């Protein structure tokens, strides 16, 4: 697996090829920095799923993205709705999903639909666990793993099929 650094994040957005990267975060701020770097390159039609157990850092990563657009303070996991919409200084919004409470992709298709995937940037917490079968092919998947021995360490695997 290739090592992801803040310097080569750009490669992920150069084309729609497959890739598999590993990134080690040693702090909440490391994770935010990675999100912030992603934000420089994301564009309309990008879909990113954030996967990992409760408290792994999915929302922290999204806050890193949001800080690039000056909307960090408005970011929290959508609790009562499935999606939060954030206005940006681009001509399209960021959609922040948390699909944890949905049963499966059928429920997503009925209640939410796939238009969002094309109308802005979609950041989807728990995406792979619930709606993997209907995600666009260009989806960037981010798996975050906690470390049993260190409270502040997270191992990221970032991939596209
Ligand atoms: N390296 C790290 N990266 C990200 N968060 C970290 C790190 N080390 C410690 N943390 C802490 O882990 C927690 C991550 O919380 P966060 O809300 O982002 O999790 P989540 O994956 O979104 O959980 P949920 O599934 O409940 O939405 C925060 O309290 C943060 O301070
Ligand atoms: Mg969260």
Plain-language structure description:
With 161 residues, the protein is of the alpha/beta class. It is 27% helix and 26% strand. It has six helices and eight strands, in the order E-H-E-H-E-H-E-E-H-H-E-H-E-E. The chain has an eight-stranded mixed beta sheet. Strand 7 and strand 8 form a beta hairpin. The mean pLDDT is 95. The structure holds adenosine-5'-triphosphate and magnesium ion. Magnesium ion binds at residues 58-59, 77, 125.
Distance between the termini: 14 Å
Q: Look at the structure and name the CATH superfamily.
A: P-loop containing nucleotide triphosphate hydrolases
In DSSP terms, counting alpha (H) and pi (I) runs of 4 or more, how many helices? 6
Low-confidence stretches: none
